[in-house]
């Protein structure tokens, strides 16, 4: 197995301070309310909560895709709004919830897009090597010349992960990466995300709807409700009825398997 880049020691981080966001410039109809958050380095941080809790909006603000009404996001100690987009793209790879591509492209073409922040569209030998390493890491070499429309949904999702691996950033943002995947490919995807942290020292922030996947794979869980952080902590601290019941307005039955909490979707 080839590793994308050498493990390095980093003391950098993403820190969110006093972030407010709204659908309106006057601050009415708020989406995010006074968010303070420090992303743990080299771990999976899962954002969980009901629809409309503000999870995807928070992810977008952290990546500087959305401008907050107030507050600051610090990327490695620097106000993210003061950093040039090209430089942000060298630090943060963002895979959105929907990534429809209308044009007919191959897996290889898609992965090459990940090198754009480094190459500006003119691939160097180093960029081509990074593309090949990403394809090898995601076990897509045999599919590199296939069109995206010709492969399965799970294979397409792996191709998009290969694209952000080729981007070679320390931070990876994933918005609902399990959407439209069956259970087998969902498990495969979460195992891949776990490997990105364990083998490549990536810091991953992922929006998840399935609480059991958050419990099984995340190192840190942020539970959001109505645009606020209701509670954050380890999986054993967050995956409890006391925390989740008010977050989702639902009565949860939670047991334990191999030392990890498991949410049962039916009554005892």
Topology:
Layout: E1 14-22, E2 30-38, E3 44-48, H1 55-62, E4 70-75, E5 78-79, H2 85-88, E6 92-95, H3 107-113, H4 116-119, H5 125-137, H6 153-167, E7 171-175, H7 183-198, E8 203-207, H8 211-217, E9 220-225, E10 228-233, H9 235-238, H10 241-248, E11 253-257, E12 260-264
Parallel strand pairs: 3-8, 3-9, 6-7, 7-8
Antiparallel strand pairs: 1-2, 1-4, 4-5, 9-10, 11-12
Helix pairs in contact: 3-6, 5-6
Structure description:
A hairpin with a 2-residue loop joins β9 (220-225) and β10 (228-233). The chain is 32% helix and 25% strand. It is α/β, with parallel strands linked by helices and 268 residues long. It is globular, with a radius of gyration of 19 Å. α3 (107-113) packs parallel to α6 and α5 packs antiparallel against α6. The strands form three sheets. The protein has a six-stranded mixed sheet with strand order 6-7-8-3-9-10, sandwiched between helices. It has a four-stranded antiparallel sheet with strand order 2-1-4-5, covered by helices on one side.
Specify the number of helices.
10
Average pLDDT level: 91
| Helical amount | 25-40%
Order of helices and strands: EEEHEEHEHHHHEHEHEEHHEE
N/C terminus separation: 44 Å
What is the rounded Rg? 19 Å
Percentage of residues in strands: 25-35%
Structural class: alpha/beta
Oligomeric category: single chain
The total of beta strands comes to 12
Stretches where pLDDT is under 50 for at least 5 consecutive residues are 1-10
> What general outline do the C-alpha atoms trace?
globular
